[in-house]
Amino acid sequence: MTIHREGYPTLLLIGLILIVFNSGLGLVLPNTSLAVSIPISVLILGFFLQFFRNPRRTIPDYPNGVIAPADGTLVAIERVLETEYFQDERLKLSIYMSALNVHLNRVPLTGKVLYTHYHPGKYLVAFHPKASELNERSTIVLQNERGQTILIRQIAGLLARRIVTYLQPQQAVRAGDELGFIKFGSRCDVFLPLDAQIQVQLEQKIKGGETLLALLPELKR
């Protein structure tokens, strides 16, 4: 396991703040105070280290499969009207990421990028029903090698203040590639065709880049 590059500036800042804090504390209070502040500082740094972790994942090979783009808990499987790109009904799968989950997002299928768009917005809690429409978010549409399309939406949460998307239109991608990063609690929605075969269930723990979310329908000849 490594630390993702998105974490370097934050970890450096947190480390400097903790060093300055403990150094100042040692000057103005008895050294016994450091016996408390240093372990607390280590715990704080440990929290941020685990947040930016980038574990190795074994990417499964499913020609018509959609792999989970994010770690977390599956909190919704519902039929909705998708109004930004498809303008029709889709199956929406929502993955809620707590602050303890890996926050690197991964490409769920091999193909190319058709569309990306960033939307500024609010910071409602990520599991709020309207978060997908009102919160800061980034939308990515992917097409697999068979011409089938899906939409992924990175959604900021109450604490998330930065969404990063690495993909650009017409870019070729492979399942498991880095899609983007969301800092702190957030959500990732996946919009699938109505006839997709869902392979997960509500409240299931999901692993980005490993868990098979759905199988896309076989193409008619």
Describe the protein in words.
The chain is an alpha+beta fold. It has helices at 8-28, 34-51, 131-134, and strands at residues 2-3, 53-54, 65-67, 72-82, 88-97, 104-106, 111-119, 137-144, 149-156, 163-165, 172-173, 178-182, 186-192, 197-198, 205-206, 212-215. The protein has 2 domains: 2-54; 65-215, Glucose Permease (Domain IIA) (Distorted Sandwich). The chain contains 3 helices and 16 strands. β4 and β5 form a beta hairpin. The longest helix has 21 residues, at 8-28. It starts with a strand and ends in a 6-residue tail after the last strand.
Summarize the helices and strands and which ones pair or pack.
Layout: E1 2-3, H1 8-28, H2 34-51, E2 53-54, E3 65-67, E4 72-82, E5 88-97, E6 104-106, E7 111-119, H3 131-134, E8 137-144, E9 149-156, E10 163-165, E11 172-173, E12 178-182, E13 186-192, E14 197-198, E15 205-206, E16 212-215
Antiparallel strand pairs: 1-2, 3-16, 4-5, 4-15, 5-13, 6-12, 7-8, 7-11, 8-9, 9-13, 10-12, 14-16
Helix pairs in contact: 1-2
Describe the structure concisely for a colleague.
This protein has helices at 8-28, 34-51, 131-134, and strands at residues 2-3, 53-54, 65-67, 72-82, 88-97, 104-106, 111-119, 137-144, 149-156, 163-165, 172-173, 178-182, 186-192, 197-198, 205-206, 212-215.
